[in-house]
Each structure stands twice: as structure tokens, then as C-alpha cells.
Amino acid sequence: MGEIAEKGIRAKAASYQMVNVSTIEKNEALAMIAKQLIAEQSYIMMENKKDLEVGSENGLTTAVLDRIMLDEKRIMAMAEAIQLLIELPDPIGETLETIEKENGLLIKKERVPLGVIGMIYEARPNVTIDAATLSLKTGNAVILRGSSSAQHSNQAIIKVIHQALKNTKLPVDAVQLIEDTSRETAKELFHASEYLDVLIPRGSKNLIDTVVRESTVPVLETGAGNCHIYLDESADFAMATEIIVNAKTQRPSVCNAVESLVIQEKWLELHGKELLKLLHDTGIRLFGDNKVLAHYPEVNQATEADWSTEYLDLSLSVKTVANVLEAVQHINTYGTKHSEAILTNDKVAAKFFLTNVDAAAVYHNASTRFTDGFEFGYGAEIGISTQKLHARGPMGLPALTSTKYFIYGQGQIRS
Amino acid sequence: MGEIAEKGIRAKAASYQMVNVSTIEKNEALAMIAKQLIAEQSYIMMENKKDLEVGSENGLTTAVLDRIMLDEKRIMAMAEAIQLLIELPDPIGETLETIEKENGLLIKKERVPLGVIGMIYEARPNVTIDAATLSLKTGNAVILRGSSSAQHSNQAIIKVIHQALKNTKLPVDAVQLIEDTSRETAKELFHASEYLDVLIPRGSKNLIDTVVRESTVPVLETGAGNCHIYLDESADFAMATEIIVNAKTQRPSVCNAVESLVIQEKWLELHGKELLKLLHDTGIRLFGDNKVLAHYPEVNQATEADWSTEYLDLSLSVKTVANVLEAVQHINTYGTKHSEAILTNDKVAAKFFLTNVDAAAVYHNASTRFTDGFEFGYGAEIGISTQKLHARGPMGLPALTSTKYFIYGQGQIRS
């Protein structure tokens, strides 16, 4: 029996035990994990150092090495995140619907765990602890399949989790790490419907696209963000500059950063030069269409590819449109259905934009950077979904649950 | 450009128009469709007759021909179902969450249409009208791909829908039928992520399995029902016989009919012979394990395959277990996560069963036949989901919706 089948069977069995554990038992287990992480931080850092050394030898970039690196501060942050998770309400058991039928049947729709979650992710050991603790809080078992570049760190974290779980009411098999990080085990997970109820890819667009294309297990998709800000004719200049600079520069590498400006042509006439100069002086590289170029010489000529590009750096494309309808059409053509904003004082235009743009989050007069589980007050986040089924936008704990109908009778039959 | 791409582009454009139509406009369009169906019933029956003739020549079974057949009564039933759909509340625009942030941001999570629904189904012209009208009520566009055996009927129904929509505020392109019913167009739909937001297969297990395996478009899965009734030690004999006969014989061909009995061994000792004789005399073919066989000679020896079989006829497998734990393990091993019942007077056993059996609907002392959108009071049903993401169990109108976050600000930026 291969590793996936062996661990799959144990995870399935653990998931059946997890439906019987209480909120208190789950929170006690999470507290034990947080405690053990701190107690074993030297061990974790020692193992992490092995990943960093191998990574250096293999020529990983400084950015990737930084994502892998664990120090006391980062391990403390993990433990603190677990403490916040403990304080969050438990979604399991929540009654979503109650139906009483004339024949006396009582039907209750309640939140239940999904079962076994499969998680495929890149070289970020923090995802190991995040995915494990979010899965346990929602009563799920989880099978983790990380990157070989972080495998020592992941193994150390899993060892610590298992040590912690041994003294709790939760089954140790509820959290398992795939040891074999070859391409084969990823492929096996794509087809492990027998053991997995859902597969969640976290990482690059390439990873996510592969999972969506190949997996027969249902996928919870967290996608890319080619986010736009549309400056309508009546957009306030001061608000526009502040929001654009925030949405582009505050953290350019994240999915809710803005990648493209769409500007109504009269607004461009009036404020274009001043805005473009200001953005350029802030260090933003601009790629514009011909009308934009005419207003400021430091703008580069945009190509068709620029409208679809999620730069994830200090680049920004700039497109001119005649009106809000053209803006909506442009965004629905090139956007990734993540976060889209209109800046305007015109309520009719705002309503039209918010209704007609097809995206998880649509903004009137605010920065796209707010699309985030913590900003929305969910306390925890598994990712931001750009798909339309199950969960859309920032996913809090309920995204890791399913529902079940409980029907209570006294012998009712169907007539 | 192929038919899928051409109709896909038009459906996408129609879906963007659909977000602006009101509940009144949608209901007016549905009323027009109902009216036009009645007005054109002779034409529909004439075209339906062509399918029946070709089907007869091709040797389709009487059961399949009956599913294809449309008469005045069935067309009237379609029109009446549309009338009921009109009366249902519109889920679109419903506010599911309201979050007010300290910085003044107002976040609203509202129900929105999915966009474009793809529907692949077998020879049932009633699905054409069902899928079209449910999609329109929920603000979606739909691309229908039916069976060649019902293609004349489907084309007639689509023509009638288009006639009706011409005089409404809804785009005619919101409902489209694929003319080419070759295997190729089905395969193209599996990968039409550019145009489709979701793909719903309706029909045989084989069809659904193919779609789940091959589709890269997210799938709403309606699965098979290998449903069990477990007779616990304290199950009431009279209630047990009434519920089993109902769940098996009232409509054996449907997914919520019972396919397997699981009997606690002491109950079998006391009541087995009487129950088995009664079921046999009702015309039910029984397949049991050795302990069951020992109680009644007319029981056939069950094979391993029987425990996994959804008979969809008057057959029933019968399995002996020592206790409720063994019953749960048997059901979680062989069930299809559809509808599972325990009959008992023991509240502890009932709670254990309901919590630990992994299924969309779990019953205490009632027939499994109630798992149905109409029985649950949803007024309409797209199918019964056996998957855990998005929708589980009977799917009413909300299953055909997604959500969207609307964020209203006054210039807020992220700090």
C-alpha cells in the first residue's frame, strides 16, 4: 500500500472520530499545540536551518528563503494565531435551518465538518500550522502535502503537533504529513476521492491551475487577483491618489493589491498628468494606452498582455474608457473576479458598477486591500476564493464546513 | 468558431444582462413561458412524436420512451410547476451578512447569480424546462445539452421559450440549447471554464461519474442513493415494517428509496422471521448474510457486491450487526452519503447514529423517502447533492446562487 492510501485510510478513520469531539476538547488540543510549539522552538529552528542550507545550495531566491525561514518571533506569531483561533466561535453544530412539517417531522440543517481536507502547498511552513489548526477547529482531519524545500521544517512541526495531540481527546491521525514530496504523490492526491472530501491548493497560479485541471476531488480554489480601480468622472482627486498609492504600494506582492487603473477620459483630461506624475514619483512603473501616454511621457506603452497581468510588484497598467459601462466591460474581460473598486461621487454610476462587475468583492470609494478574512472580522482565513461555488471571497472557518440534515420522526412514511 | 464557443459567448453576455433584471421582470418572463407552453402544446407534442418514433425504431425501452413522452397532461404539469416557481421568493439580493467596521467601512454579503450554468442531461425533456426556468428565476443564463433521443422535443421547447422571452425584459440568449448532441460537444463543455461557472450533470451514475472525472469546470454533483435503514435493538416492530415497506416499495426507482436493511442481531432473533416473511410476501427480493438466511429460507445469499448496490427495484439487502457502532461502520463503508435512517427507542443510540453516519440526510424513526426539495418545503429542486461543498442534500433555489461582498467606503485605505 502506498503512502497516500495508508495515510488516507487513517485520516478517514480520524475524521469519523472527530465528529464526536466537543468544542472544549478541540480548544484544549489547540492550546496544547501552541504550548508545544514554544517548548520545541529550538528543535523546529534547528530543522528549519537544514531547509535553509539546502535551499541556499540549490540557489533558491532570497524571497523564497525568507518565506521558509522560522525564527523565535515567527514561531511566537504562530502560537499567538492559535490563541486567537481558540477564541473564535466553533461553527460546528450551528443550526442553519429548522423546518417543522405538518406530519410532525422536524428537520434541522446543521453545520458539520467536511471530513478529510487535502492541502497542497508551496514552501511555507506557516501553512502547515495554519492548515492543521484551522482543520482541527472545524472538526476535520487533514492530509498535508508541502514542498520538498520546506520538508524538514514541516516534519518538525508535524512531530510537535503529534506530541501535543497525544495528550488530548483528538486522534493523532487527524493531522498527517505526506513524507514523499515527489510529483507522484501530488498526482495521487488529485484522484484520492476515496479518502479526501476536498482538496485545497495554496500557492502559485501554476500550482492552482494544475490542481483545478487534474483533480477529480472537489477543489476549493484560491485564485489570482488582477484587481482594478476605476476612476469615474466625478472621482475625488485627493481620495483617488491616496487609495491608489495604498492599494498599489502598501504590499504589492499580495492578491488584493491593485494592478490596473481604469480612467474615465474626462477625468484623465483634468487630472491625468498630475496623477500620473505623482504615481511615477512614488516609484510606480506605469503602462498605459495611447491616451494615457499623451498625458505623461514617463508612461510605457501597454501591450494587450498588460491588461491581463497580475504584476505583484510596483507596476500598474492604465486604461482609458468613455464611461462606467466601458469600465465594467474592460474589468469583466480582463479581471480575475477578485476585488474591484470604483471611485466616484455619482451614486448611479457606483450602483451600476457594483452590480455589473463580476467579482468576489466590489468597492465604492475604498482600497481593494481590505479583501481579507481578518479585515472582514472573520478572525481566521484559509484563503480568498475566486470561485463561485461553496465560498467566494475571504474564507473564514465556515468555508471548512459542510451541512447535514437531521430529521426526527415518530414513524412517518411518505404518502 | 464552434457551437460551444459561439453560444458560450452569447450566454456570458446574457448573464451580465441578467444581473440587472428585477424579480418582477423575471416572474413576468416565467409567466410568459408557461403561457406559451400551453399555447404551443400541439407543436411540442408533434415534435415529441418524432423522438418517440425514432426511439421506437432504435429500440429504446418502454421506460425510456415513457420518460421522453409528452402529452397534454405533462405539458400542463410543466406550466403549473412554473406557476409555483413564480410564487417562490427570489433569493437574489438577499443580504446574508452585514459587517460595520470601526473605520466606517460597510460590508454586505449578498446573494448573486452564479452566471452561466451548463446542464448535461439524459433523455428527459422535462429537465429542459426545469433547468431553464430555475436558472432564469435565479438570474442565471443556462446552456442546455440534452440527449439526441429527445432532441426534437428539446428544440421545440427551446423555440417556445425563445418566443416567450422575446416579449420580456430578459435576454433571449439566457437560455440556449446545444444542437450538436455528439460526444464532442459534451467534452467541450467539460473544459468551457471561459463561459461556464458551473456544470450540473443530471442522469445516470455513469454520466455523473464521467462529468466529475473529466470536467475542469466546477461540478454540482447529484449522486446515487444506496440508502440504509438500521433496526436497532429497541426498534418498534410495527413502525419498522411500515417504514421499510414505504421506503422500498412506494417508488423503488428513486435515489431516496431504501436499498439495504441493517439489523441488530437480538432484534433479528426476536422479529427476523416475521419481518422477512412479510417483506417477501410484499414482493421484495431479499439478499442476506448467513445469520439472515438462517431465519428465513426465501432469502438469497448476499455477495459483497450486494452491500454496494443501488438496486432501484424491489430488491433489498439485509445485513446483521452486533450494535449501532457496527451499523455505522457498515453504512459509512458501503453507503453513498445520501439518506440513512435508524429506527430505535434508544435516544443515546439515535444520537450516536445521527452524529456518526456521514450522509446528507440522517433520520430517526422516519422513512428515507422524505429527502426531497418539495418535501422539505423548498418549492423547487434542482437535484439532491451527495457532495459536501456548496450544497448538500435537496437543492432549492439558493443552490443556484453565489455570493458577493459589497463594500461601501468614504476613502478608506488599509494601514
TrEMBL record, chains A, B:
EC number(s) recorded for this UniProt protein: 1.2.1.41
Family annotation (InterPro entries): Ald_DH/histidinol_DH, Ald_DH_C, Ald_DH_N, Aldehyde_DH_dom, G-glutamylP_reductase_CS, Glu-5-SA_DH, GPR_dom
Any Pfam family the entry gives: Aldedh
Keywords noted in UniProt: Amino-acid biosynthesis, Cytoplasm, NADP, Oxidoreductase, Proline biosynthesis
Amino-acid biosynthesis listed as a keyword: yes
Location of this chain's protein in the cell: Cytoplasm
Gene3D superfamilies: Aldehyde Dehydrogenase, Chain A, domain 1, Aldehyde Dehydrogenase, Chain A, domain 2
Enzyme class name: oxidoreductase
Function: Catalyzes the NADPH-dependent reduction of L-glutamate 5-phosphate into L-glutamate 5-semialdehyde and phosphate. The product spontaneously undergoes cyclization to form 1-pyrroline-5-carboxylate.
Family, similarity comment: Belongs to the gamma-glutamyl phosphate reductase family.
Protein name: Gamma-glutamyl phosphate reductase
Organism per entry: Peribacillus huizhouensis
